[in-house]
Amino acid sequence: ILDPMVRLRERDEKEKVSKLSLIDLLNENLIKAKMSKNLEKALDFLSYIYKLADKRYIIKITIPNEKRFIITSSGDLKLAHNVYIPRIPQYIIDLSKKFSEIKGYLESLNFVHEKMIELVGEDILKQLGVREVSLREIAEEVILKQIIAKNPPPDKDKLLIATFLVKQAGLVINEPIWVLTKDGEIESSDNVWNPKLFEGFEDVAKLLNIKLLDIKSYLKYDENAESWERFFEKIVKGFILHECAYYGYSYQCYLSKDVNGLVNEIKKTLEDVGVDDNVKLIRFLKKLYQNTYSIQWNKIIVRLITDEEGFAYSNQLLLHDVYKAAEEWFK
Length: 331
Fold this sequence. Notes:
This protein has 331 residues and is an alpha/beta fold. The protein is built from 16 helices and twelve strands. Helix 3 packs across helix 4, helix 4 packs parallel to helix 8 and helix 10 packs antiparallel against helix 11. The longest helix is centred in the N-terminal third of the chain and has 17 residues.
């Protein structure tokens, strides 16, 4: 350190003598050395640097992330983005009583030393990157694991609560989760269908061994049905009926992979059923077509009823009155 009484030439001051800055003082080894000697003085030292930096408006602009050190309540030195304000919302404390995993997660977090909060203040700490415990983080780190289908399923009550919390946190789910079906079972969402698609055709769903989402159970926690549909649309079958894309200069829409699979399953089932079930399946197929009338369907050949109450394939027949055709069947 240069004696303050020494006067240098301007050229020497600019070219030969380095200046010590606040950022130079944010040295991990220096701070740890001070902590090992006297934790209270280390807290005073680090807090004073940040308060000076705040006065000079250099926290966000100048201090690199790798130099934003925070002393934790356990007496360790951590980077700011790995440390939390020691204030946990009451609703998260309440959740930790229902999910023991949340309590364990909270206990694993690093919290800012109380004296540092007192000396620096929460606003400056947040500018440095210190985090707050939030529902979104708890949902990402703990609750989502409860409902992801690659993990064992929870019980029904816990499943419904966990799914609601994940939705409430605004998480976007792109992999199968456990869901509750209308028959009271817990199934992976990629094996479950949108119940609205089968309204009036629940017997067809049974005939095809299709599991339907019990969306009414979820409405107990949030009555907004549309928000639940948006939440489930990418992970439960039958919410998205078609897919569109550009092919060269042409924008074309086709039935989704799931709906194509459903149509093929109906064709297969039609090979083995009697008259009554044949009528149910064909009328459902018509409903499916009406729900996707603007989408390009490939021509399909199915087994239909003849005048003699026998069966033949659709490319060999005119339409029978038993189907009660009113309009658009010719399509």
